[in-house]
Every structure is written in structure tokens, then in C-alpha cells.
Automatic annotation (TrEMBL):
InterPro entries: CTLH_C, LisH, Topless_fam, Topless_Znf, TPL_SMU1_LisH-like, TPR1-like_2nd, WD40/YVTN_repeat-like_dom_sf, WD40_repeat_dom_sf. GO terms for biological process: regulation of DNA-templated transcription. It comes from Durio zibethinus (Durian). The gene is LOC111299036. WD repeats lie at residues 459-502. This is Topless-related protein 4-like isoform X2. Transmembrane segments: none annotated. Residues 34-92 form the CTLH domain. Residues 1040-1068 are annotated as: Disordered. Pfam families: LisH_TPL (PF17814), TPR1-like_2nd (PF21889), WD40 (PF00400), zf_topless (PF21359). Keywords: Repeat, WD repeat. Residues 1047-1062 have a biased composition (Polar residues).
Length: 1068
């Protein structure tokens, strides 16, 4: 359920409560699972309404969700049992014992025996522990106090014990607003219309000479009706009068739409039509939730799975997300939950680029975050690879087809051919970038990787200067938005350059534009040099808002990365600068930040990062603010040499910051993650084989799934990145987790003479075969738990096996190790986790499984239905999605375990929401069954591999049976059919260590045993586990004296990716 749908439930709850539909209120609370009323719960417990108590609880939790839930149900049923005994109703007590309490015997058999023994006592108070049991009323009171503590501690009830703060009659308010807007959109609005129904949109009939006043004089709502507006709904029914008129708001186009002094001009027939019901569009922007469940860290006791609002669901979990070399924040990250400190800000100067002319605009590539696009004051555009400091593309200004230019432009260029770049901007997918020039022209280039820039569109966009440019997606169509000196905002088709819209209404040159969207509402903010701000929908109605920027300044506007907070920064003619945050719902300035200079030179530029920080170039420095603070957080002069108002730009993750310098250069500032990012590429030559051709990147948006049957694109990265799509996707989705790469001491590594390490004897490594008392069947899938204390295997007979290491004197941290043998673990019930096999032969199936983030649940399949198991009790929680097609790979979404990606044997990928039991998206693009899936923990993408892919390393000793990354992504473990295991350096794909089967297997000439699967330890990069064809599982580690597998080859010794001839790139 979306956030807005959830909020609608709260509005309905408020309405029902105000209308005294008490039973319905609590029924909706239970069925939605959004709010747990402690008062209602207390009343039922106090009155002993036990059936109703459990029925209400069932909307929020089940008995075996976690230990808190189990204790809650136990205390309730125990009290019911004791009350039956106290009334000497033995028959009722026996019924409660076997119907309600027996379920707990599986968890504590001794306790159940003791409870059963109470039946034999004349008075259960003879039991020592119950000797102080008083009367029923006092016992219920004591139990209730305990239940409240358990509920408050239970993570399943987190954020469900308090209603959101709402103004009275909020639903009525929204309906009044909708009706007022429907009336304002009537072609012939009547004064004092009589509203008789809400079932259809309001429409006035033909007027009899009456005319409604302008919306400017007609408040959106008011207790006293005015001509042309609606009287309060209270005049027609039970609704309450509305509050006084709202001030004009940013959201609010929705409030008082001002009359348009100039009609909006259109370019003729357009494919972007406005919806008929503008009331459906002009709604308030979505307010971000105060508590983002995606960032709700669970305790160690959060072994819950069912949130009960739907058939079943899995708790939202997230770990501390490490940093990838190309990280992008998830749009769902709440700014209120950010854990970044000022130490995360990029303030260390790591590189200076010599541009040669004054920088006017910069933008980092949205995916390849080490690519910086720069535009200068002489019309040059340059593309820099900041990892190596290499200028990889350079274009000077030139009109591509002068004959197609307007006469004013031709005349202007004839007199003076010099131009300046006002704005450079990448498209959201990095396939295009736009350049806005100071004379009429906009150039759109397509980018295909490396230095491959192609002319795409030349648009004679405006009369005079084109002041700003941006990309937007109205109606899912990529468009270019421009504004200019001619006071017009224009929208162009990015495919063919056709003009779609022209918005007129500003009385001064339009300085900047800020396209955005809320839910499915697309709009554009525009600012002018006279300090006016307007907002436009993609229609011909005109601006929806008209108000002044702080200080009547030339202003730029920008949203935070998650799209929930709006900021602006500008400078007026007197040099006064203003940096503010806007309250969209109220249309007022929410926060003014202090610290900008009073006499700024030029317009101060600013940027946002990490949904947490603001930065501005002012007074020869870069200044930083916390979004939630007011005062200057910190600043840096970047080692000096900055102009009075430097141009600044963050990369997408905020690990790098580009700053223009006084001497026509660019300084690259970095934080620790940015430095690590640059180190990974600084020694690599930049060529087309390493650069992703951004034009074909079609990664689906995982946060908000698009239409069904989306097409999977192909991403061609550098060698190591390409291997990720094929060898990194084993049964452990962490194999492609975006982790911080461990940077070795380069001077030490390069000083070593590289030599392949051969391990042929048991004395050359540490290994352990895990004890197994169950039937030995070949191991099909293998994974370490996220905590690293257990290993889970799935055998070919659909049975799961779980080994756990215990914490003791020989193993102080309880982690998996070869030094101590683990226990083959089973619950006291003795049950096994066995997948549904239906009519399939499990030996012929392609098994798959995935673990939840807190190791409490495993999703698994062996050719038939997908099963969900509780790892604590081994119980099957549910089964779903029977074949055909059959699941061949499973992956949890990194921030919402209710979203899983399911790879199928028919080559499709289904994005499935387990909570609502619905396939949200179906992806196609492979030709054969899916063999691997991995969600990025920082990039909003899903990577897949199919049986139509193959990778063969140059030094392979035979066919590969499996491969996976180490936890730090620095090594790749590869198993071969001859029983050997290779350890490769991930960055070069060179084999640095080979482990022969004799090093870990006992010699047995009559039995050919080979490793079928490999699992990498989640925190020890040098430990891995092998699943064998004979059913055995082996843990292998290097000797303690060695500490790691072999020695990495250095670039100087000929092992670099650009000089090694035998390390062939992966084949797809």
C-alpha cells in the first residue's frame, strides 16, 4: 500500500471516530494494521473479552512472529485458563489448555506440563508461583500492565501506537477543497452552487446572467460563502465549516490560482494532454512520512514476519549500507533519518583540473559518478574523468545548421560569434546532455561512453539568452525544459525537438526552472530576474502560483534527492543572498539559513546532497549547512584560489564536490568514500570497454515499479563490473552488495614479485567438513547467514540443513570458523525445512533461496511453489506462486523485504509484493532461465544474469561449476569440475591462488567429488564454504600465518587490466 493510501486510511479513521462509528473504527484498525488502540485493547482485557482481544491482535501479529508476540498471547491465554480454573469450570479449562495453550509446548514443553498439572490441584494457588494470585480484577490489571510493556517493546507495533497529528475534520477539508476547485474549473460557474452529491464531479449548468468572481477574490474555503464560491459543506449535510482561506502556497496552484496576464501559447497538436479532472491533479504534494519504515532498524529480537495487514508480509529491514563505487541514494530514504555527520562532507582537495576558461556550469554523470561535464564562458564544453584527471571530450561552440536558424540569431552571430554556456545538464539516465547558450541556441548531445559524443538536437529555443535547461518526464515522455531572456518557458520533445508547450506570464527574463513531480503530478517552478516565482502544469491554463522570492532576488530552486524538501538560493541587485527551505503545504518559507554574505558578487550557486546537507559558493569559500539547522555548519576555502561566488556541484552520492577556481580551473573535493572511489580508477586507462554506454541503460526503477513487461537493458562496464553480472549472483544476494572496497597499500603490493600460489597439501590451508547426520544428498545451494554465525544449505532432495557455531572459549565471537566444529541444528520439534516439490523431481529442478536481513526467514524453492520458513522454528509460514513457470532465483529488495525479485525458468523476472500477494512488474530480456539476481544496495537497479550468459577466465583449469565475490569485492572464488578452487583478483581477473582438491578432500579413487556451489563469508573476505556433490559442506580458510590467499599481482608486473593479454574480458 502506498504512503498516500496509508494516509487515507488514517483520514477515514478520523472521520469514523468523529461520526461515532466506534465498532467500524476498530474493525478498520484491525484490518489495516496501521494503528493499534491501546485504550480499546485495555477495555477488552479489563472486561475479559478474550475472543475479541485475540481477534483485534490478529490484525497486527501472530503467536510465532517473535518472542514479544508469543509472550503476549501466552499471558492472555494463561489468564483465560486461570479464570476458568478459578470458576471450577474444568471442562472449559481443558478446552483452553488444548485449544489455546498447547501451541506453546513446542517452545517450552516443561512449562506446558506445569500448566497442565494445575488441573490436578483443588486450587491452583497451591502452586508456589501462583500463590499470590488475587481476584480476577486485580489479576487482569497486573497482566494488562505487563501486556502494555510487551506491546511497546514489540517491533511489530512500532509506529502503530500513536495516530498522526491531524487537524480536525481533515477529510472534510480536502473534500471542500476539491469541490471549490471543481467549481473554479466550471466553464460557467454559478454563485452559491447547490451541491447535492459527491459521487460525480461537480459541474454548473448554463448561468442565467450570473457570473462568478475571479478566484483571486474567492478564497479556497471559508466559513462565510462568497459569490461564486461554495458555502461550507455543513450547509448541505453533516460536514463541519471550513477554516479560513489558506495563503498562496507552493503546493498551491491548488489554492488561489492567479489570473494569467498573458495566455499560455501552445505549439499546436500535442501528445501531452492534461487530465480532464484537474482536481485529481491539483492535490497537495505528498507529505513524507515522519518515520520511514525502510530505515527502521530492527532489534535482535525482531524475528517477525507477518504484519497481518495483508495475507502475509515480511518486516522492513535494512543494514548499514556500505558505499559502492557508483552509489546513488534510494529515493525512499527519509531526510529525517539520515545518519550522516559533517565528517561525511567532501572537503579534502584531491585534484585540480585545468579548464582554460571560466567555468559557468557543471554536472556529474548520474550513473558514472566520476564523469564531470563542464561548460565555460567561451562556449566550450568538456567532459572530464576525474579519477584520472583526463579530459576525454572537448567541444567548442559551433552552430550545426545555420540555415535553419532564425534571422535574429543569424544576425546576432554575424555581428558577434562568441557565446557563453549558461547551463549544462545530464538527462536522468545519462544518455543525453543539454547545453544552454547565451544566444538562442540549445544543443542536445547523445553520449555513448568514453569520448563518444554525437550531435542529437539543435534547437533555436529563445530570443536572446537561454538562461536554464532541465529534463523532465511528463506522461512518461522525456522532454527538455528551457527558459530565456524572452520571458518564456518552453517544453521540447527530447526525441525530435518538437515544441510541446510555451508558458508565458513572467514580466522579466526567466532566470531558472525546476521541473518536479509529486506522485503522478508533473509541474515546473520558474523564477525570474525580478524575483517572481511561478508554477506551471503541463497544460495551457497558465501559472498556478505567483509570489516573490526572498529579497526579490534572482533565484534557483532545487529539491532534496528524495524529492520531499524544496530549497531556493538567490542574490538580489544589492548583493544580498538568501538560502531558504519552503513549506510546500503552507506556501511559506519554512526555514531561513544564516551565513551567506551581505555583498555577494554575482548570483550565489548552491546544491544539495544526501538529503541532509546544503552547500553554497560564497565569499571565496564553500559553505555547508545541515538541512535541519539554521546556522552555518562548516566551510572550506578549498586550499584557496576560489572566486567570490564559485560554481559548485556534488556528484549524486555526495562523495565528490566540484568547485570552480579563480584561475579557470576546477578543484575536486572528496570525503573518505570519494577518495576511495577515485583510488579504484586512478591507475586505469579510460577506454570504451570500461564505460557503460549510457544510452542503453534501461534499469527498472525498483522503488516504484513501472508497467508490466518492462525491458531489461544491458550494462557493459569494466571487466570487474561485467563479471559482477555473471559470477556475483549466487544464492547469496550479498555477493553483489555495494561494499566499501578495501584499498591495499599500493607501495607494498607493487614491491612484491607476483607469483601464482599453489595449494596442494592439507597443511597449506585450514579446512573443516561440517558434521552431518542427515541423508547425504548433493548440495544445490549454500549461504552464510548475514551474522556469519551459521551456514544454510539446500540439498537436491529439497531439504534444508542449518549449521550453527556456538560462542565458547575456543570461539569467542561465535563466528563460523575451521577451528571449531558447528552443530547441525534443529528445533526441539525435530521438524525439517522441506520445500514443496509438487509433481516435480527435485533432482531435476533448479533450486534457489534467499535470506531475510535479520536471518529470521528464508525464502526457498525447489522447482515447485516458493516456501517461506521461520529459521527459529523451521515452520512453513506460507507457500505461493506455483509453477509454471518455476522459480530459479530469488532476491530480497535491500530496503523492503516484502518486495522480492523472482527469476523464472521461462527467462522472465517477476517483481513480487508478498504483503499484497501481487506481481507488480514482469521483466523480460533474457533468452533462457534466470541464473542470478542482485539488487544494488545504493544504486536503484536490479542486475540479472541468465543461462544465456557465460564467463570463462583465461586461466581456467576446466568448466566452472560456481563463482562468487568475497565480501569485500576484492576477490572472486571460482570452483571447477576438476575439484579445484581458484581465487582471482577482482580488479584484474588474474588468478592469484589455486587450491587443489587434495588440499581439502580425503583421497578416494572410487568417488569423484566436485564442488557445486561456493558461499563467501559475510565479514571475513578470506573464508569461503564449498557445497559438494556428495552432500558435504567444507569451510576453507588460509593459514593464520598467511592471513590471505596468495599475493595480488601489481600493475608494474604486467598484471594490470590494460596490459594483460591472457585475462580475457568476460563473454556474454
Amino acid at each position: 500500500m502506498s504512503s498516500l493510501s496509508r494516509e487515507l486510511v488514517f483520514l477515514i479513521l478520523q472521520f469514523l471516530d468523529e461520526e461515532k462509528f466506534k465498532d467500524t473504527v476498530h474493525k478498520l484498525e484491525q484490518e489495516s494494521g496501521f494503528f493499534f488502540s491501546l485504550r480499546y485493547f485495555e477495555d477488552m482485557v479489563t472486561n475479559g473479552e478474550w475472543d475479541e482481544v485475540e481477534k483485534y491482535l490478529s490484525g497486527f501479529t501472530k503467536v510465532d512472529d517473535n518472542r514479544y508476540s508469543m509472550k503476549i498471547f501466552f499471558e492472555i491465554r494463561k489468564q483465560k485458563y486461570l479464570e476458568a480454573l478459578d470458576k471450577q469450570d474444568r471442562a472449559k479449562a481443558v478446552e483452553i489448555l488444548f485449544k489455546d495453550l498447547k501451541v506453546f509446548s513446542a517452545f517450552n514443553e516443561e512449562l506446558f506440563k506445569e500448566i497442565t498439572h494445575l488441573l490436578t490441584l483443588e486450587n491452583f494457588r497451591e502452586n508456589e508461583q501462583l500463590s499470590k494470585y488475587g481476584d480476577t480484577k486485580s489479576a487482569r490489571g497486573i497482566m494488562l500492565a505487563e501486556l502494555k510493556k510487551l506491546i511497546e517493546a514489540n517491533p511489530l507495533f512500532r509506529d502503530k501506537l500513536q495516530l498522526p497529528t491531524l487537524k480536525n475534520s481533515r477529510l472534510r477539508t480536502l473534500i471542500n477543497q476539491s469541490l471549490n476547485w471543481q467549481h473554479q474549473l466550471c466553464k460557467n460557474p454559478r454563485p452559491n452552487p447547490d451541491i447535492k452529491t459527491l459521487f460525480v464531479d461537480h459541474s454548473c449548468g448554463q448561468p442565467n446572467g450570473a457570473r462568478a468572481p475571479s478566484p483571486v477574490t474567492n478564497p479556497l474555503m471559508g466559513a462565510v460563502p462568497k459569490a461564486g464560491g461554495f458555502p461550507p459543506l455543513g450547509a448541505h449535510g453533516p460536514f463541519q465549516p471550513m477554516p479560513a482561506a489558506l495563503p498562496t502556497s507552493l503546493a498551491g496552484w491548488m489554492a488561489n490560482a492567479t489570473p494569467v496576464p498573458h495566455p499560455a501559447a501552445s505549439a499546436g497538436p500535442i501528445g501531452l494532454t492534461a487530465p480532464n479532472n484537474a482536481a485529481a491533479i491539483l492535490k497537495r504534494p505528498r507529505t513524507p512520512p515522519t518515520n520511514n519504515p525502510a530505515l527502521d532498524y530492527q532489534s535482535a529480537d525482531s524475528e517477525h514476519v507477518l504484519k497481518r495487514s495483508r495475507p502475509f508480509g515480511i518486516p522492513d529491514e535494512v543494514n548499514n549500507l556500505p558505499v559502492n563505487i557508483l552509489p546513488v541514494p534510494y529515493a525512499s530514504q527519509s531526510h529525517g533519518q539520515s545518519s550522516y555527520s559533517s565528517d561525511n562532507l567532501p572537503k579534502t582537495v584531491v585534484m585540480t583540473l585545468s579548464q582554460g576558461s571560466a567555468v559557468k556550469s557543471m554536472d556529474f554523470h548520474p550513473v558514472q559518478q566520476i564523469l564531470l561535464l563542464v561548460g565555460t564562458n567561451i562556449g566550450d564544453i568538456m567532459l572530464w574523468e576525474v579519477g584520472s584527471g583526463e579530459k576525454i571530450a572537448h567541444k567548442t561552440f559551433k552552430v550545426w545548421d545555420l540555415s535553419r536558424c532564425s534571422m535574429p540569431l543569424q544576425a546576432s552571430l554575424k555581428n558577434d560569434y562568441t557565446v557563453s554556456v549558461n547551463r549544462v545538464m545530464w538527462s536522468p539516465d545519462g544518455a543525453l546532455f543539454g547545453v544552454a547558450y547565451s544566444k538562442h541556441i540549445v544543443h542536445i548531445y547523445s553520449y555513448h561512453g568514453s569520448d563518444d559524443l554525437c550531435n542529437h538536437l539543435e534547437i533555436d529555443a529563445h530570443v536572446g539568452s537561454v538562461n536554464d535547461l532541465a529534463f523532465s518526464y511528463p506522461n512518461k515522455q522525456l522532454c527538455i525544459v528551457t527558459c530565456g531572456e524572452d520571458r518564456i518557458i518552453k517544453v521540447w520533445d527530447a526525441a525530435n525537438g518538437a515544441k510541446l508547450y510555451a508558458f508565458e506570464g513572467h514580466e522579466a527574463p526567466v532566470y531558472s526552472i525546476c521541473p518536479h513531480h509529486k506522485e503522478n503530478i508533473q509541474f515546473i517552478f520558474s523564477t525570474a530576474t525580478d524575483g517572481k516565482i511561478k508554477a506551471w502544469l503541463y497544460d495551457n491554463v497558465g501559472s498556478r502560483v505567483d509570489y516573490n522570492a526572498p529579497g526579490q532576488s534572482s533565484t534557483t530552486m532545487a529539491y532534496s534527492a528524495d524529492g520531499t524538501r524544496l530549497f531556493s538560493c538567490g542574490t538580489n541587485k544589492e548583493g544580498e543572498s538568501h538560502l531558504v527551505e519552503w513549506n510546500e503545504s503552507e506556501g511559506a518559507i519554512k526555514r531561513t539559513y544564516f551565513g551567506l554574505g551581505k555583498r555577494s558578487v554575482g548570483v550565489v550557486q548552491f546544491d544539495t546532497t544526501k538529503n541532509r546537507f546544503l552547500a553554497a559558493g560564497d565569499e571565496f569559500t564553500v559553505k555547508f549547512w545541515d538541512m535541519d539547522g539554521l546556522n552555518l555548519l562548516t566551510s572550506t576555502p578549498a586550499d584557496g584560489g576560489l572566486p567570490p561566488s564559485p560554481c559548485i556541484r556534488f556528484n549524486k552520492e555526495g562523495t565528490l564536490l566540484a568547485v570552480s577556481t579563480e584561475d579557470n580551473g576546477i578543484k575536486i573535493l572528496a570525503n573518505s568514500d570519494g577518495i576511495r572511489l577515485l583510488r579504484t580508477v586512478e591507475n586505469r586507462s579510460f577506454d570504451a570497454s570500461r564505460m557503460a554506454p549510457a544510452a542503453i541503460v534501461k534499469a527498472p526503477n525498483i522503488g516504484t515499479f513501472g508497467p508490466n513487461n518492462a525491458t531489461i537493458g544491458t550494462i557493459i562496464g569494466d571487466r570487474a563490473a561485467s563479471v559482477a553480472a555473471m559470477v556475483g549472483m549466487n544464492s547469496d544476494s550479498r555477493s553483489l552488495a555495494d561494499v566499501k572496497p578495501r584499498i591495499a597499500d599500493e607501495s607494498v603490493e607493487k614491491s612484491r614479485i607476483w607469483k601464482l600460489t599453489e595449494i596442494n597439501e592439507p597443511t597449506q590451508c585450514r579446512s573443516l567438513r561440517l558434521p552431518d547426520s542427515l541423508t547425504a544428498m548433493r548440495v544445490s545451494r549454500l549461504i552464510y547467514t548475514n551474522s556469519g554465525v551459521s551456514i544454510l544449505a539446500l540439498a537436491s532432495n529439497a531439504v534444508h540443513k542449518l549449521w550453527k557455531w556456538q560462542r565458547n572459549d575456543r570461539n569467542l565471537n561465535g563466528k563460523a570458523t575451521t577451528s571449531v566444529a558447528p552443530q547441525l541444528w534443529q528445533p526441539s520439534s525435530g521438524i525439517l525445512m522441506i520445500n514443496d516439490i509438487g509433481d516435480t523431481n527435485p533432482e531435476d529442478a533448479v533450486p534457489c533461496f534467499a535470506l531475510s536481513k535479520n536471518d529470521s526467514y528464508v525464502m526457498s524453492a525447489s522447482g515447485a511453489k516458493i516456501s517461506l520458513f521461520n529459521m527459529m522454528t523451521f515452520k512453513t509460514m506460507t507457500t505461493f506462486m506455483p509453477p509454471p513457470p518455476a522459480a530459479t532465483f530469488l532476491a530480497f529488495h535491500p530496503q523492503d523485504n516484502n518486495i522480492i525479485a523472482i527469476g523464472m525458468d521461462d527467462s522472465s523476472i517477476q517483481i513480487y509484493n508478498v504483503r499484497v500477494d501481487e506481481v507488480k512488474t514482469k521483466l523480460k530480456g533474457h533468452q533462457k532461465r534466470i541464473t542470478g539476481l542482485a539488487f544494488s544496495h545504493t544504486l536503484n537497479v536490479l542486475v540479472s544474469s541468465g543461462a544465456d550468459s557465460q564467463w570463462v577466465p583465461g586461466e581456467a583449469s576446466g568448466p566452472i561449476t560456481y563463482a562468487t565475490y568475497s565480501c569485500d569485492s576484492q576477490s572472486i572464488y571460482v570452483s571447477f569440475e576438476d575439484g579445484s578452487v581458484g581465487v582471482l583478483t577482482a580488479s584484474t581477473l588474474r588468478l592469484r591462488c589455486r587450491i587443489s582438491p587434495a588440499a581439502y578432500l580425503l583421497p578416494n579413487p572410487s568417488l569423484r567429488v566436485l564442488p557445486l556451489v561456493i558461499a563467501a563469508h559475510p565479514s571475513d573476505p578470506n573464508q569461503f564454504a564449498l557445497g559438494l556433490a556428495d552432500g558435504g559442506v567444507h569451510i576453507i580458510e588460509p593459514l593464520e600465518s598467511e592471513g590471505k590467499w596468495g599475493t595480488s599481482p601489481s600493475v608494474e608486473n604486467g598484471a594490470g587490466p590494460s596490459t594483460t593479454s591472457d585475462a580475457e574480458p568476460p563473454q556474454r
